[in-house]
Design brief:
heterodimer, A: mainly alpha, B: alpha/beta, Rossmann fold, 6-stranded mixed sheet, 10 strands
Chain lengths: 329, 234
């Protein structure tokens, strides 16, 4: 009985962690074709903003968590405009270049880069990885310089659930509920709102969407901010549970990355299915060997196997089955 | 004053020139065709009008304003509707969502047009909740027209409406376009290499060869099958 309960709670725990870690990354990857290796550091921003709002400004924890999400979304918007789309550097350079080339001698002016200075990173998987990896290094070191090697943590709220010899943190159960709510929110946004419809149109065919009057730049910026906000919310939720140091994002990135790769291109369905499968594997192995390390090893092995046999991820496989069925008819 | 005016438009993909010094104009209320064989630059011409390709030189004016440097989404908001080659409906959105994508341009627009497009193409109303990728080629073409039309454009651009569609549907689409032009006063510029479509739709027609406009036909000349066939023959 206790063992069964343990297993169930371990599964919920893994599922919630994977879903929350992956949601923001999955949206940004699925819609913009950008792999954000600084995703863990966006979670760091959310976690730090929440913690500092509580410890420094005495804001109540639930409000502080929303603050964490909003701060990270705003931060994401800045990153999108500067690093991902390059809109800000391009505008600055367009203003700077003419006077500069007028003052320089002709030969030197010919060496200046033209406009636009940089191309957006949309749909450039490898390039976006390099750029965001650089960003993640800057962010980790930046956090270390500003806040030091660690900051004070907020206490885990809500106490323990217990049943005989079994006891479990009630807050972690709430997290499982929140992870389902986040999935529902993402589904609602993409299936039913005007923004969601435009975003899906932009993924399918961004040139046609533009010819339909969709401001694709704004859609991309909004998407990146939304994905960043979710990452920040994840950081906020886990702020009471993980130790507050500049490298805390790393543990999230691995799981998120694996979940997105295993899930495939479909954001909600892919994330649910891969979090379900990977969570089940991790929980059973952890429970059987009574070791978290073995659980993680099993999770990574499952991911490798999934990729070997389902190269398009789970949703890629479903899509293939559907196409085959349609052709059979 | 012409609704659309291209003067001296030259365009290229990388180093390969595709349009050379093209002059063309379309008056309010006209249906104008551009004909020519594969690869003469017809689709590229439309792309420079839509704003998906920036010309190397020359100007595109619309309603008497120079729009050469405007982005495609801004031109769409000013009333240029585009029906791309191969339709390019959004396959994973439903029929109704595709139509609503067209509506995003004129937000708060009258529901009137939304219903009107379904009256032109009743088959779309039947399939409103189906995903667009499951429609036949002809139905996708109708959907692409509906999606552009619902934005209430002044100028509608069609890129090879007959391509890959069975002949009976092609005739129907030509008729529908004439009806839309009559009823709503929508100006239409289309490119085609199907002789029947050119003759049944166009009031006036330009002929293109190797990226240049080489002839302009109207009235008698447009009625003469031989002349048109000459520009389309392989």
């Amino acid at each position: 009985m206790v063992n069964g309960l343990n297993l169930a709670f371990q599964f919920l725990d893994s599922f919630a962690f994977i879903v929350l870690a992956a949601a923001g990354l999955a949206i940004i990857f699925g819609i913009m074709g950008v792999i954000n290796l600084a995703h863990g550091e966006f979670i760091l921003v959310g976690a730090y903003a929440t913690t500092l709002a509580v410890t420094g400004l005495s804001v109540p924890l639930p409000v502080a968590m929303l603050v964490g999400a909003v701060v990270t979304a705003a931060f994401g918007l800045v990153v999108e405009r500067t690093v991902i789309s390059g809109a800000v550097p391009n505008r600055l350079w367009a203003r700077l270049e003419p006077p500069l080339s007028a003052t320089l001698p002709d030969q030197a002016a010919a060496l200046l880069p033209g406009t636009p200075l940089v191309e957006p990173l949309y749909d450039r998987l490898a390039d976006s990885m390099v750029a965001t990896f650089g960003l993640s290094l800057v962010m980790v070191q930046g956090a270390r310089i500003v806040f030091g090697n660690s900051i004070d943590q907020v206490a885990t709220p809500l106490g323990e659930l217990s049943y005989g010899a079994f006891s479990y943190s009630a807050y972690r159960v709430v997290l499982a509920g929140v992870s389902v709510a986040v999935l529902a929110l993402v589904y609602y946004v993409f299936a039913y709102t005007d923004y969601g419809m435009r975003a899906r149109a932009v993924i399918q065919d961004d040139r046609t969407a533009r010819a339909m009057g969709v401001d694709t730049e704004r859609t991309y910026a909004a998407t990146f901010a939304f994905g960043s906000g979710l990452a920040g919310f994840t950081g906020a939720l886990f702020a009471p549970l993980v130790s507050m140091q500049p490298t805390l994002g790393g543990q999230f990135l691995v799981e998120a990355f694996v979940a997105v790769v295993v899930g495939g291109a479909s954001v909600v369905v892919g994330t649910v299915l891969s979090a379900g499968v990977l969570g089940a594997v991790e929980a059973s192995v952890t429970n059987y060997f009574d070791s978290q390390t073995f659980g993680r090893i099993a999770l990574l092995l499952a991911a490798i196997l999934a990729l070997r046999f389902l190269p398009g991820g789970i949703t890629g496989y479903i899509e293939r089955l559907r196409t085959r069925r349609r052709e059979d008819r | 004053m012409a609704l659309l005016d291209l003067s001296g438009v030259t365009a290229a993909y990388d180093r390969t020139p595709v349009l050379r010094d093209v002059d063309l104009s379309v008056d309010q209320g006209e249906i104008v065709g551009v004909m020519g064989k594969n690869g003469v630059g017809k689709s590229t011409l439309l792309k420079t009008v839509v704003g998906l390709l920036a010309p190397r030189s020359g100007t595109v004016s619309y309603h008497g304003e120079d729009v050469t440097d405007l982005a495609a989404d801004e031109r769409a908001r000013r009333g240029i509707g585009y029906i791309p080659q191969g339709r390019d409906v959004f396959p994973k959105l439903t029929v109704e969502q595709n139509v609503r994508m067209g509506e995003t341009i004129n937000e708060g627009c009258d529901e009137y047009l939304h219903d009107t497009v379904y009256e032109y193409f009743p088959v779309l109303a039947e399939r409103a909740d189906q995903s667009a990728g499951t429609l036949s080629g002809g139905e996708q073409q109708m959907l692409a027209i509906a999606r552009a039309l619902v934005a209430n454009p002044d100028l509608l651009l069609l890129d090879e409406p007959s391509e890959g569609i069975q002949p009976s549907i092609v005739d129907q689409i030509s008729e529908d376009m004439r009806a839309i032009n009559d009823d709503l006063g929508t100006t239409i510029l289309f490119v085609e290499q199907n002789l029947g479509v050119i003759r049944s739709m166009a009031d006036r027609c330009y002929a293109m060869e190797r990226g240049e406009v080489v002839d302009e036909l109207a009235g008698e000349a447009l009625a003469d099958e031989g002349t048109i066939a000459g520009y389309l023959a392989v």
